[in-house]
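2024-03-11 09:14:02 INFO worker-7 job=invfold-0412 stage=load source=structure_tokens
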């Protein structure tokens, strides 16, 4: 959890610092957008690869490798001469996009075995809380560090967070993943590009899990709208202090997510589990609704509780979603998270492209309402399907047992210090 918090702080620090640096280095908003597009594309393509790697190799070592490579590339950017900095910047976009995807897939795949099946919901809740605190600190310190100490110091500090994360992970046992049994794939398992992309794993998990991945991808599409819409909305409603408006918006969202993480951790400590597929769908709908209301230009006293509620609903949905996906058999878990990561990156990337273009022609409220309307419609369809055919009737027996967080069974996989 400490490594996750430190690494997340570095991610949000470089999200701000690298965007500003790209704009200053190139003087082009299009180049700044291209940098983000390269980073997102790298993360999307790395999703299935991460699933393959995390299913075959020691996951903590993969995470350490991603951290070390990210730290080295940031240091290379600082040391690069002026003429080579643009090339180093795009290389960094690829490394960060791939590294963060691999890190996330490996963490979520390994967490049930680190924390134990009975405590995975509580562990996920604490990770969301830790991420929210790291987000607050990352956004709060990025501007101060860049303005006061310069980009080089900010990048070196960012590299230091990745190095610290790698050092913390070195204390975590590196367990070899459990290999899938030959018969687990089934006689009709797909081969070729579909199997490489992780699509085949969808045939071996409960339909509700596949549906939840689709809802989360639609949620990512909606989230892209408010991510690109916040700066535009801030400049329209608070032209005198757009940065302050954006800070209030994002801080309130992070505090809401933190509150959801703390509440879910306590709930999981008492009951052993958090949420259900229906609760996940309801939380997704509420998150979209609150974000749309936040873009109606409400007064500050109303904006804060709206974004707090959006953050809380988003945090709860994420915890429920991650915990449910972790309930599948370990031999399929990494591939499933790899595919889910690619689906979310695809939704977010399409949302960033489409919503950025739409903001040139429509008001932020309209763009956010349409994008989150799509996410809400998908979530409502999911809820309707759950009402007509409850997931409990369709889950494979293994998934049902995992979802209820039953006692862990002994594992014979190799563990090394």
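2024-03-11 09:14:09 INFO worker-7 stage=emit residues=417
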């Amino acid at each position: 959890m400490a490594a996750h918090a430190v690494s997340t702080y570095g991610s949000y620090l470089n999200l701000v610092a690298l965007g500003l640096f790209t704009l200053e280095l190139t003087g082009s908003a299009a180049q700044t957008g291209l940098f983000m597009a390269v980073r997102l594309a790298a993360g999307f393509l790395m999703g299935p690869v991460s699933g393959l790697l995390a299913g075959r190799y020691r996951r903590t070592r993969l995470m350490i490798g991603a951290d070390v490579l990210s730290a080295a590339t940031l240091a290379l950017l600082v040391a690069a001469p002026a003429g080579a900095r643009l090339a180093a910047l795009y290389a960094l976009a690829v490394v960060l996009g791939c590294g963060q995807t691999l890190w996330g897939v490996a963490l979520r795949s390994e967490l049930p075995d680190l924390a134990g099946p009975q405590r995975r919901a509580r562990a996920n809740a604490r990770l969301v809380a830790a991420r929210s605190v790291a987000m607050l600190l990352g956004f709060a310190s990025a501007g101060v560090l860049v303005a006061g100490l310069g980009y080089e110091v900010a990048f070196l500090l960012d590299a230091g967070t990745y190095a610290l994360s790698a050092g913390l992970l070195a204390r975590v046992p590196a367990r070899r993943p459990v290999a899938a049994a030959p018969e687990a794939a089934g006689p009709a398992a797909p081969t070729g590009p579909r199997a490489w992309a992780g699509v085949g794993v969808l045939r071996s998990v409960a339909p509700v899990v596949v549906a939840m991945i689709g809802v989360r991808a639609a949620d990512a599409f909606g989230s892209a709208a408010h991510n690109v819409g916040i700066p535009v909305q801030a400049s329209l409603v608070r032209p005198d202090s757009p940065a302050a408006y954006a800070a209030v918006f994002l801080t309130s969202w992070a505090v809401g997510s933190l509150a959801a993480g703390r509440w879910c951790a306590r709930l999981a400590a008492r009951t052993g589990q958090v949420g259900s597929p229906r609760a996940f769908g309801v939380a997704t709908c509420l998150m979209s609704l609150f974000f749309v209301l936040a873009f109606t230009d409400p007064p500050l006293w109303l904006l804060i509780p709206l974004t707090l509620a959006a953050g809380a609903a988003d945090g709860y949905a994420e915890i429920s979603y991650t915990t449910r996906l972790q309930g599948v058999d370990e031999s399929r878990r990494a591939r499933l998270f790899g595919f889910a990561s690619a689906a979310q990156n695809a939704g977010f990337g399409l949302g960033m492209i489409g919503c950025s273009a739409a903001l040139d022609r429509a008001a932020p409220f309209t763009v956010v309402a349409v994008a989150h309307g799509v996410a809400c419609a998908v979530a409502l369809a999911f809820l309707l399907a759950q009402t007509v055919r409850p997931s409990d009737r369709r889950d494979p027996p293994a998934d049902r047992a995992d979802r209820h967080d039953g006692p862990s069974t002994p594992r014979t996989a190799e563990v090394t210090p």
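2024-03-11 09:14:09 INFO worker-7 stage=report msg="Residues 181-191, 392-417 have pLDDT under 50 and may be disordered."
2024-03-11 09:14:10 INFO worker-7 job finished
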